[in-house]
Specification:
It comes from Rheinheimera tilapiae. This is YcjX family protein. Pfam families: DUF463. The chain folds into three domains: 7-136 and 267-371 and 435-453, P-loop containing nucleotide triphosphate hydrolases (Rossmann fold), CATH 3.40.50.300; 148-263, no CATH class; 374-427, no CATH class. Helices cover 41% and strands 16% of the residues. It contains 17 helices and eleven strands. The strands form two sheets. A seven-stranded mixed beta sheet has the order 2-3-4-1-5-6-7, sandwiched between helices. Strands 8, 9, 10 and 11 form a four-stranded antiparallel beta sheet that branches. Strand 9 (383-392) and strand 10 form a beta hairpin. The longest helix is centred in the middle third of the chain and has 26 residues, at 241-266. It is globular and about 75 Å long. The two termini are 23 Å apart. The relative contact order is 0.14. Bound molecules: guanosine-5'-triphosphate and magnesium ion. Residues 27, 29-35, 93-94, 96-97, 133-134, 327-328, 330-331, 368-370, 372, 425-426 line the site of guanosine-5'-triphosphate (GTP). Guanosine-5'-triphosphate binds at residues 27, 29-35, 93-94, 96-97, 133-134, 327-328, 330-331, 368-370, 372, 425-426.
């Protein structure tokens, strides 16, 4: 029997049916956050694309469409979705992110249950997502340190075998520095430290890149609190004016920059995506793999067990799902996707266990937000072999290649001594058509992150 609710009751029901979800996308610089977010929005707002079989709301034909709506926080920059998409369509990757931006989506869908269908024409899910430079993420540990401990930590990393030569010139200038301080001395040494951070970033030594704002200052460019670098532990004992100025800047940086960023961005997150570029790290060698693993551990550690974290108490109970993504899976032949996933899972063993322990649902996927290669075959004496065709990022030329195999678990340092991984860097395929850009497993990501809210 059909029944109809009076207009106002139906309107009220419609309002109650609106849900709100805050999604965080986390990862160090280059992990693929911006590309993922652009593709994610594209899948949800472009209704003419090819089907997404694992995204049930679409598969069940209950999805009515999604659109970008004005942000609640109108003072925040809007995530440049349209221009990012345009860049991809022109065969370019969006640029590395320099400042925080946000985007709000409204998704409309028909409810699944027949009873709800009688009460409501549709339901709405509002989705709020933030993008930010990956460098800012690794300032997180600074929150629980004082200046002296931070200097000790940074120098213990700068004194390691691989980086000490790179840090030598900065160390010498520090030793010669006028400890009476003053703006000029502070700025000159900050400039040198910034150059060192840039060099370390090129070497993908992401853990040492503190303070992150020296690399991506955004609105803080030229701010006195960004005159910040680690004195040598021996210089700290002297209690000089320079040391006191740096201590003050460190405290200001922590309280006025890092804490508000984490409070505003991470507080109230409902779900989180943690991205890792395992292939890039394999290319760069054992040290880069270790750095990636430590960065992932650090992210997870601070998100779950951060020391004296007032902000942790606010948001931690709310995160109920974490998706771990091994990005750029399109740079592999399909037979290697499983290995990539297993490698990521092995790197995450501990944090995954901790998340489960805390009753937070987790999933790991090998994903390509934007597919940049075509699959082909080459004839070899041993039979046909899969290979990839793509436009090389360095030359722009099309190339056919076999990218190689992914180890199933964290490779030993010895393996890197006699094997150089060489996964390619391709530009996005220039394409047209409604489903462009193509993706891999974004539907599984959408289902895990949103599926239960679209019922
Ligand atoms: N093949 C392939 N490459 C990708 C994909 N996503 C990202 N990349 C590559 O990785 C680079 C970095 O991606 P971004 O999305 O800018 O990374 P990010 O995490 O936002 O980095 P920051 O903005 O610096 O924090 C891109 O310029 C591409 O070269 C993908 O799905 N497939
Ligand atoms: Mg980015």
């Amino acid at each position: 029997m059909e029944f109809h609710l009076p207009g106002r009751a139906r309107e009220l029901g419609q309002r109650l049916a609106n849900q709100h979800l805050r999604l965080g996308i986390t990862g160090v610089s280059g992990a693929g956050k911006t590309a993922f977010l652009t593709s994610f929005i594209h899948q949800l707002t472009n209704t003419q694309q090819s089907p997404l079989p694992f995204f049930q709301v679409m598969q069940q034909q209950r999805y009515l469409g999604g659109q970008c709506v004005p942000n609640l926080m109108t003072q925040r920059a809007r995530f440049p979705f349209e221009s990012n998409l345009q860049q991809l369509q022109l065969g370019q990757w969006p640029s590395s992110t320099t400042a925080l931006s946000q985007i709000t989506l409204q998704l409309r869908y028909k409810p699944q249950s027949p009873l709800k269908q009688k009460l409501l024409d549709w339901q709405t899910l509002t989705l709020e997502i933030t993008d930010y430079p990956g460098e800012w993420l690794l300032d997180l540990p600074m929150l629980s340190l004082d200046y002296a401990t931070w200097c000790d930590n940074v120098w213990s990393m700068l004194d390691t075998e691989i980086v000490s030569a790179l840090a030598e010139s900065f160390r010498r200038q520090l030793q010669l520095a006028d400890t009476a301080g003053g703006p000029l001395v502070l700025q000159q040494l900050t400039d040198l430290y910034q150059q060192l951070l840039q060099t370390l970033k090129q070497q993908q030594l992401s853990l040492i890149l503190q303070p992150g704002r020296l690399l991506r200052p955004a609105e803080l460019a030229g701010a006195p609190l960004l005159q910040l670098f680690p004195l040598l532990p021996t210089q700290l004992k002297q209690g000089s004016i320079l040391a006191r100025q740096l201590q003050q800047n460190f405290d200001d940086y922590k309280h006025k920059v890092v804490a508000p960023f984490y409070r505003d961005y991470f507080a109230g997150l409902d779900r989180q995506v943690i991205m890792a570029d395992c292939l890039g790290a394999l290319n760069r060698g054992h040290h880069a793999m270790q750095q990636l693993q430590q960065a992932l551990m650090l992210i997870m550690q601070h998100f779950s067990y951060g020391p004296d974290s007032w902000w942790r108490r606010i948001w931690q109970p709310r995160i109920d799902k974490v998706l771990f993504v091994a990005s750029k899976a399109d740079l592999l032949t399909p037979d290697q996707h499983r290995n990539l996933l297993l490698l990521l899972q092995q790197m995450l063993q501990q944090p995954l266990y901790q998340q489960r322990y805390q009753r937070c649902e987790t999933e790991a996927l090998a994903v390509a937000a934007v597919v940049s290669s075509e699959l082909g075959q080459v004839k070899t004496p041993a039979g046909n072999k899969p290979c990839l065709r793509g436009r090389m990022a360095t030359t722009g030329e099309l190339q056919l290649l076999y990218p190689g195999e992914v180890p199933l678990s964290m490779p030993s340092p010895q393996l890197f001594q006699h094997h150089q991984f060489a996964f390619p860097e391709f530009l996005p395929l220039v394409g047209s058509g409604s489903s462009f850009p193509e993706q891999l497993r974004m539907d599984q990501a959408l289902q895990f992150l949103l599926g239960d809210h679209l019922q």
